[in-house]
From TrEMBL:
Pfam families: Hen1_L, Methyltransf_23. Gene3D superfamilies: Hen1, N-terminal domain, Vaccinia Virus protein VP39. Residues 1-239 form the Hen1 N-terminal domain. This is Small RNA 2'-O-methyltransferase. GO terms for biological process: regulatory ncRNA-mediated gene silencing; RNA methylation. Belongs to the methyltransferase superfamily. HEN1 family. It comes from the Bacteria.
Length: 467
């Protein structure tokens, strides 16, 4: 496999200082899986291209820890020529100083952005060119991709998953190498070493400052961590914590964005009305075992805990930090003995089936779905209505039509910066009715808050009852 990094900023030979590799030398390095060679394809004032060539010893790898699921796969695979986790290891070991942003001879060069391009020959893209672009383009890269056929002699066999890929951007070399280090293994089906807590820490360290806001962060984390659900869930929780940092000690626990939304709703006491309506619907369902999905800092949980009807209460949220705040606010460590067994907080994602959510009478989903990317709603629907399948689901979401009543929101903006969408009444009812039909529920819709004759209420609620 070959990685070629090129710059055209004069003097382009500064790339040699940044990589700590002299353009006039051919250098080789022994790695645990073979050898890496560094050489320059061209090096003059106007253009400089440094090549990192990996020579993977597939037999040696098999004799070590193994490289495949079965005996044949260990020897017959794309490891020698397709960019994978081997390349990430080579970047960290051969280009380690550049990856860390250090340039001993010319330290001022490391922090200076310059036009850079990286060409990968070749990259196995599991997900095709759309996924390739979805990963690199949000980071500001221009992407060029040339897909290769399975066999030139037999065009009817179709295209292969292999591409020659070039990504270009004006950036620092450290940032370019960091993105390659994290993202190249994301396109591959397997890593050549065990994926554990160390890999989680590497992902968070190398993804700091960009991964938490990436629109494909969930897919990147899932693939990077080799689909290990426990690691992925923790990564996602910590990435969300990074995206929405808690204020300094002594400040309010609420996020600035949440304060904006609360300021809109406060004159109406809308949050209290919302919680009261949800609580009334749960009471009417005669539920005894209740889930609060996306429980946040525990406002609904506090009300549920006060009502003796609810014998088992579980609050789930994806953010560990938010759950810690909920635990403190609910004073769970100081509950009387007869109360402490009634409530439990768990960390989890609504994107993945979780058997801990099964067997409950009712579930509350209060102002949650609008924080999900629309393509992920289908996963949420199956997790809740197909797998967990409580008898009753009480779900609330903003009514976008009502936004025009707030001067600083209007018709075009959303109430909260983290909202991915907000639905009109017709859109919400169409979505909810389709779910009810598909999964065997009936549905009724209720308004929450002061209702405008034309615009409807500020919050809309759907109560699903299993047939």
């Amino acid at each position: 496999m070959l990685l070629t990094i090129t710059t055209t900023q004069s003097p382009a030979t500064d790339l040699g200082y940044l990589l700590h590799k002299h353009p006039d030398r051919f250098q080789s390095y022994d790695l645990s899986f073979g050898q890496a060679h560094v050489f320059y394809q061209e090096a003059d004032a106007g253009r400089c291209s440094a090549c990192l060539l990996l020579d993977v010893d597939t037999v040696g790898v098999v004799r070590g820890k193994g490289a495949g699921e079965g005996l044949l796969a260990q020897y017959v695979n794309d490891r020698p020529y397709a960019a994978s986790s081997f390349l990430s290891v080579a970047i960290s070991q051969v280009y380690g100083s550049a990856l860390q942003g250090r340039c001993n001879d010319r330290p001022e060069l490391a922090a200076a952005p310059r036009p850079l391009s990286a060409r990968l020959d070749i990259l196995a893209v599991r997900g095709g060119e759309p996924f390739l672009r979805a990963v690199f383009e949000p980071l500001g890269y221009v992407v060029e991709a040339e897909r290769h056929p399975l066999d030139d002699r037999f065009p009817e066999w179709g295209e292969s998953p292999y591409y020659s890929v070039t990504v270009s951007k004006t950036t620092t070399l450290s940032d370019l190498l960091t993105h390659l280090y994290v993202l190249v293994p994301v396109f591959d089906n397997q890593k050549h070493y065990f994926v554990g807590d160390d890999e989680l820490e590497k992902l968070l360290a190398k993804g700091k400052g960009w991964l938490s806001t990436h629109p494909e962060r969930e897919e990147i984390a899932k693939r990077y961590l080799k689909f290990r659900s426990s690691l992925f869930r923790e990564a996602l929780a910590r990435l969300i914590d990074e995206e929405q940092p808690i204020e300094a000690e002594g400040a309010s626990d609420e996020q600035p964005a949440e304060k904006v939304e609360a300021a809109l709703e406060n004159p109406l006491s809308l949050n209290e009305q919302r919680l009261g309506s949800v609580l009334a619907a749960l009471r009417a369902s005669k539920a005894r075992k209740v889930l609060d999905l996306g429980c946040g800092e525990g406002k609904l949980l506090r009300n549920l805990l006060k009502d003796k009807q609810f014998e088992e209460i579980v609050g789930m949220d994806v953010s560990i930090r938010t759950l810690e705040i909920a635990q403190d606010r609910l004073k769970l460590d100081r509950l009387p003995t007869n109360q402490e067994g009634r409530i439990k907080l768990i960390q989890g994602s609504l994107m993945y089936r979780d058997r801990r959510l099964e067997g409950f009478d009712a579930a509350a989903v209060v102002e949650v779905i609008e924080h999900l990317d629309p393509p992920r709603l289908l996963a949420f629907e199956r997790v809740l209505f197909e797998f967990a399948r409580p008898r009753t689901v009480v779900l609330t979401t903003p009514n976008r039509e009502y936004n025009v009543t707030w001067e600083n929101v209007g018709a075009e903006r959303l109430r909260h910066p983290d909202h991915r969408f907000e639905w009109t009444r017709a859109e919400f009812q169409a979505w909810a009715q389709a779910i009810a039909t598909r999964f065997g529920y009936s549905i009724k819709f209720l308004p929450i808050g002061p209702e405008d004759g034309e615009l409807g209420p500020p919050t809309q609620m759907g109560v699903f009852e299993r047939d």
